Amino acid sequence: MSYIVKQKIRGRTYAYEAENYWDPEKKQSRQKRRYLGVWDESTGQILPKTSERDVKTTKSFGPAYLLNSMSDEIQLKKKLNDSFGKDGDLILALAMSKLLHQTSLKNLHHIMEDSFLPEIYSLKESFSSQWLSDFLTRLSSQDGALTSFYNSLIAGESDTLVYDITSFSSASRNIDWLEWGYNRDGLDLPQVNLGLVLSLNRHLPLYFKLFPGSINDVVTLKNLVAETKAFGINKSLFILDRGFYSENNIKELSSENIDFILPLPFSVNLGKGLISETNREIENPANARRFGGDIFYVLESDVQIGGVQAYGYVLYNKKREGLETNSFYNRLIDIECPLNGKEFKNPVDQFKRTAGNFERYFECNVDGKKITLRRRINAISQATNRFGKTILLSSAKRDWDEVLSLYRERDEVEKKFDELKNELEAMPLRVHKIETLQGLLFIFFISLILRAMLLRRAWEAELLDKKSIDDILMELSKLRAVKVGGKWRLTEISKKQRTIFEKMGIGVPVEANLVIKKSGV
Fold it and tell me: By the number of CB atoms within 10 A of the CB, which of 144, 224, 486, 502 ranks highest?
């Protein structure tokens, strides 16, 4: 017959199930014990034991913990909850899941199964494709909540905002806003246009707006200005790409009193004229300036564009000229070597396929099936004459280094679009309703904010010298939470993981359950 035995060890009382039996070899009575758990003196109850066999779940903890900690720093969770109520936590978790796994949101339920995000934000949803579609549609209909959230992001913003536009293409036949227009990605598909507003001070996206695909750039920009003015922002600057340049666009920007900086294409008459006028003077030692450790030769000029007064800045950098010259002639020779003097079944087609946009730099003579190439010296000289040079236009008179600095900030906006389209896999769009599309892009927008924070913090921590953002998240994904006996416990934190948290200024996690409690569970 079995009975319970209690044994006190180092201040704690442990309970065992004991049973006596006769040992025939030793010819004596012996005892078998089975550990039951800790004896609670106050209740007289046994607290059941736990062991590795009681592990029910293991989840990736590190990346979710990092993103949750960073979002708290700009009160992103609070801003979303203040605007969207109980949907705020869902929005944030969906945006984080998109960062943690570069895969379609249709796989969301698999992502959530392995992530600690549902535990941090107390999420009980199914995360099925139908649930996601319904949620995104509901999200896009909350105009008041969206306006409130954008207001909370923009509040207190006094520095210059940068605006830019891109296009998102789709083959869907059910989205009314998909229209044919100038496609920046060169895709033969209808599109919607998206305008993005970025803070130069905080390096964070602040606002985005969707527009039908056929609306031209100037109208889109005017609408963006009106939208952000409604949020109390009056000071703004457009930093545009060279594809935006046209005399009509410059006139319209001027008539709307919109401040702008954009590069002037070399192919337009004004660009050709400025290059020609400054070629002899540009390398004068008196024109040498320093910017970010590089030497630029700078000439400034007042210009007229369709009756609009603007200011041109011709910038010449010899180091960049050398790189561009080397790249150009390498490409030229790479085309010549496999073609010149060789025979092909279809020589003209072969030449066009191989040369691509370098076709204009060659005379191609065909004798039977044999190709003979001769370089077009004038065309090559005209191209190389532009190497190392940039022409920037400004609507207002500014110092040359301010113009260059602001233009280089545009790279940050372009990177944000690149992240949105490629790293967040928003291209091509695979949704079938404008409401779903608007909700989906809002989730991507929140992901973009989180990724911008992550990149900035990793860069400041000097972690990007040898690692990418994906490498950092991958390393942290090895830190897991294990559910043992109903309680979450962390696996051992490695030296690499500890270093990442410490360098990024994030407290090293101690207990998984503390994160859940902090999030309001």
Answer: 224
